[in-house]
């Protein structure tokens, strides 16, 4: 991203943030009910649960609704940090928007380069786009998660 200041241009890199999920952008925020807290971590993808306002962690190849927010979630329901999961029956912020930069988790065994298209993986994480999957984001940094789940900045496409 280039930022202009008068006659000069400087490069502003999108980087991972500490204890924040939204790196940049203006999301649409919707309040949702955590039907099952398993794998509902800030920054991960979720899909519709039993009812329209219920959410559960996305699964590989699904079409997710959006990203679990952190700084937009009410403090009453906000986990201790971005590496702590929500509890069942929490209320949390669901973030959507195509010009958002989000910190999320790249699934174990994946390796992607900046600009690679990504899709939903199990447990709400992302993976390299597979045939017939829904595009959810673009990798905004080269990350190797072949030995462990890794944080990755992405540009949202949902």
Q: Short summary of the structure?
A:
The protein has strands spanning 2-5, 8-11, 22-24, 28-34, 45-48, 54-57, 66-68, 91-96, 101-106, 110-112, 117-120, 126-128, 137-139, 143-145, 150-156. With 158 residues, the protein is mostly beta strands. The model is unreliable at 1-5 (pLDDT under 50).
Global morphology: globular
Element string (H = helix, E = strand): EEEEEEEEEEEEEEE
What structural class results from the helix and strand content? mainly beta
- Please indicate the percent range of residues in DSSP E strands (runs of 2 or more): 35-45%
Show unreliable segments. Answer: 1-5
Nearest-integer average pLDDT: 92
CATH top level class name: Mainly Beta
- Spatial strand order of the main sheet: 3-9-15-13-11-12
Biggest beta sheet summary? 6 strands, antiparallel
Can you count the beta strands? 15
What name does the CATH topology carry? Virus Head Decoration Protein, Chain: A
Number of domains: 1
Our measurement of the CA-to-CA distance between the termini, rounded to an integer number of angstroms, reads 20 Å
CATH homology group: Head decoration protein D
Helices, by number, come to 0
Give the name of the CATH architecture: Beta Barrel
